[in-house]
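Subject: Protein entry, chain in single-letter code together with its fold tokens

Area: Proteins and the way their chains fold up in space.

Attached in line: The record itself begins immediately under this heading.
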Amino acid sequence: MKKKMTALNWMALIVGLFFLYIPIILVIIYSFNESKLVTVWSGFSTKWYGDLFEQEGIWSAAKTSLLLAIGTSTFAVILGTMAAFSLVKFRRFKGRTLFSGITYAPMVMPEIIMGSSLGLTFVALKFSTGFWTMMIAHITFTMCYVVVVVQSRLTGFDRHIEEAAMDLGADGIRTFFYITLPMILPAIISGWLLSFTLSLDDLVIATFTTGPGGTTLPIWIYSKARLGVSPNINALSTIMIGIVATAVFLVTLLNLYLTKRREQDEKNAIREGI
């Protein structure tokens, strides 16, 4: 039986939605404010959007953030998938406990500790800090999330399918690319997207490991916000919210389409079987 929503449930739902979305709505509203004061409404205007794209360094910071996130997520997926395979396929080997602890440590370690320790390491090794040191640092703390996602998929993986493929003559490489990889591909994509988001959003670790020419979009926003939040920041936030909302909407439509298509294929298969 379906339980009816009580007044307390509705109140909790409404309060939760207000807590989550009222700040976002306010940012969007005040991005169209005529006044320079972000908390005083003086009329509708879109001038801050035009002024935003004239700000020095914004395009360079956005390009750096995008390239950094793409490179980080790609390498994190490769290394994280290899680590997950090692932990699942080889359950007993010397140093497994240490390897597992090192892999998961960045998930529970505060970012400020990771950022400062990595920054000191690069200085001690006399690395020139910049784009590549930021990428190494981002791979270090995003790879563990890929390991968790891929490992959970591999744990529930049906090994009999791989064994059947190998019994039919497929070697280990063909079995991986034709059987294992397609079945764990959703987990790999999820790990890539998660790593991309974490890298794109990171400020603390990037601040400690950056150098000349390595300004990311979060660092650029923070440097502007230190002098006081301007309507430019509200406009930029609104654009990013719009991009994310559009992406979520398109993914939802694609998911609905694939679900309906799968249900239709199942119905057709049943009819053909009958």
Remarks:
- Residues 60-238 form a domain with the MetI-like fold fold (CATH 1.10.3720.10).
- The chain has a mean pLDDT of 82.
- The longest helix spans residues 231-273.
